[in-house]
Amino acid sequence: MDQSIISIIAGAVALVVGIVLGKLIFAKNTKKEVEEAQLQAQTIVKEAELRAETLKKEKELEAKEKFVQLKSNHDREVMQRNQKLVESENRIKQKEQSLNQKEGNLEKQVKENEAIKETLNRQIEVVNVKRTELEKHQEEHIRRLEKVANLSAEDARAQLIEGLKQEAQSKAIALQQEIIEEAKQKANKEARKIVIQTIQRTAAEQAIENSITVFNLESDEIKGSIIGREGRNIRAIEAATGVDLVVDDTPEAIVLSSFDPLRREIARLSLQRLVADGRIHPARIEEVVEKTKKQLDDQVMEIGERTAMEMGVHGLHKELVRMVGRMRFRSSYGQNLLMHSRETANLCAIMAAELGLNPKLAKRAGLLHDIGKVPDEETELSHALLGAKLAEKYGENPAVVNAIGAHHDEMEMTYVISPIIQACDAISGARPGARREIMQQYIQRIKDLESLAAAYQGVEKAYAIQAGRELRVIVEADKVSDADSDRLSFEIAQKIQTEMTFPGQIKVTVIREKRAVNIAR
Fold first, then answer.
1. pTM of this prediction?
2. How far apart are the C-alpha atoms of 128 and 200, rounded to whole Å?
3. What is the dihedral sign for C-alpha 427, 428, 430, 433?
4. How far apart are CA 138 and CA 136, in angstroms?
């Protein structure tokens, strides 16, 4: 590197000298000038050599400083690497020591486990020996017990299982009754609230009717005209209307007797016309009865239309309107059918509104639910199924058809309003004063209730009290235990619920009593 710098400087000096000489030659100066030029050139060469020497020394110094710096960096890096190697060796030594310590602990633990295992094996052997001895003692104890009790272990186990089974059954029945009561209380709480609100918001009427109609007369003299010669007039009236006329000693009155209120109404209106006209003979009777039937048909349509308008039920087929009107002249257990249907419709609308359903559809179904009781022709179908068939025939909504057919559980309920119609029908029919029950039917229901309870084993006597609202069952104390009494009460109640139809509820009370009687003489 130094030689190259020196050669560069020498070249530069030679170039300068050449230039100076050239100037001297071309200028053709004087010798003095030449000498001065030579001196100047020598001076320049010396200065150049001095500068070259100075530059050489500076470069050498820079090279030494750079070498010292590089060496220092190298030494520092070597020192750091050596330090890291030392630290790594220390960590490796620590790990080796830790592993050696763990290995020693593991060997110690293995030895301890082997000792524990040997101890456990010895204890297990001791336990097996003691268990064998215990089994022998237990077998001996069982043989002694069997000898004392004259009962084998299998028989004792069977008796124990049977006792536990009976106890479990009793507890299960009690628990089942508690669950049923709790479920009824919770499930019926809201339903009872809605039903009570619905009943309170509905104005009910006393709709009791009899199977007779009293026709009042101005005087008893008219009775002879009504009876006619040899009774021909009264026979004509009875043949034309299908109503029995009872003419007795009742002053100024004739009793019209028939199970059909429509026939009684036709007979009453016909008698009214005949008495007012004064001409009473068989031909006139037939003519008046025929006119009265036509007039009553018009009146039936008018009643049906007025009822539909008052109830807000629109778009009914004419035949359905006529059937609604005919309900006015029908009764069920003494309850007027039209009044019952109107009351049911109002209850249905209110209950549907409480439940957030369509009140108009529910009211429509409630008004039509008993149209099967007023058919034009007699059929073998029940009134619920016949009513559903008629409603479907005359284009009613499927929900209405299903509600009519299912309100006595003779058809599966597929719409939400169906149970509402069933509940409201029961509310209207079961409220106090709504219906009167025939004595024979009441007596038969009481007998069926007592017979149902008496059919169970161990029952000594059964009495239906409180108008059939409670059934008291007296059982034989020797044949029926306290646990059996609970089960018997539950079973009788379930059987009454599934096999009998009754208003309200029936309380079943089973009485078990053991008496010891002695006489001191």
1. 0.46
2. 79
3. positive
4. 5
CB 189 within 8 A of CB 226: no
Residue 155: count other Cβ atoms within 10 Å of its Cβ. 12
Here the tokens at position 100 are 């050696």
Give residue-wise pLDDT tens across range 228-281: 777 887 888 888 888 887 777 777 777 877 777 778 888 888 888 888 877 888
pLDDT tens digits, residue range 83-121?
999 998 899 999 888 888 888 888 888 888 888 888 888
Do residues 434 and 335 make contact, with C-beta atoms less than 8 angstroms apart?
yes
CA 238 to each of CA 56, 187, 232, 285: distance values in angstroms, whole numbers, following the listed order: 163, 55, 10, 10
With vertex at residue 412, the alpha carbon angle to CA 407 and CA 417, rounded to the nearest 5 degrees, is 55
Q: Which residues, in sequence order, are CB contacts of 117 under 8 Å at separation 6+?
A: none
- Which DSSP helix (H) or strand (E) runs through 511? strand 507-513
Phi then psi for residue 325, to 5 deg, are: -65, -35
The three-state secondary structure class of 395 is coil
Kindly state the tokens that stand for 476: 């034989």
Per DSSP, 521 falls in state: -
Q: How many CB atoms lie within 10 A of CB 65?
A: 10
Residue keyed to tokens 């007369």:
217
How buried is residue 284: exposed, middle or buried, by Cβ count under 10 Å (0-12/13-18/19+)?
Answer: middle
Residue appearing with tokens 């009454």: 496
Q: How far apart are CA 337 and CA 261, in angstroms?
A: 11
List own/partner pairs for 9-15 with CB under 8 A and 24 or more apart: 9/48, 9/49, 9/51, 9/52, 12/48, 13/44, 13/45, 13/48, 13/49
Q: Between β-strands 507-513 and 470-476, what pairing exists: parallel, antiparallel or unpaired?
A: parallel
User: Which residue type, as a one-letter code, is found at position 295?
Assistant: Q
- What pLDDT digit, counting tens, does each position of 336-345 carry? 888 888 989 9
Beta-sheet strand order (sheet of 507-513): 459-465, 470-476, 507-513
Number of Cβ within 10 Å of residue 212's Cβ equals 13
Residues in the chain: 521
What is the tens place of the pLDDT at every residue in 121-152? 888 888 888 888 888 888 887 777 767 666 66
- The total of other beta-carbon atoms located within 10 Å of residue 483's CB is 15
**Per-residue b or e along 2-32, where b marks 16 or more CB atoms closer than 10 Å to that residue's CB:** eeeeeeebeeebeeebeebeeebeeeeeeee
Which has the closest alpha carbon to 285: 271, 268, 266, 265? 271
Three-class secondary structure of residue 494 per DSSP: helix
Enumerate the β-bridge partners of residue 244.
Answer: 257
Backbone angles phi, psi at 47, to 5 degrees: -60, -40
| Placement of tokens 């050489």 in the chain | 56
The full DSSP string for 348-378 is HHHHHHHTTS-HHHHHHHHHHTTGGGS-SS-
Strands 253-257 and 244-246: antiparallel
- Which tokens is 329 given? 């002249």
Given this model, what pLDDT does residue 327 score? 86
Q: Residue written as tokens 């299982």?
A: 161
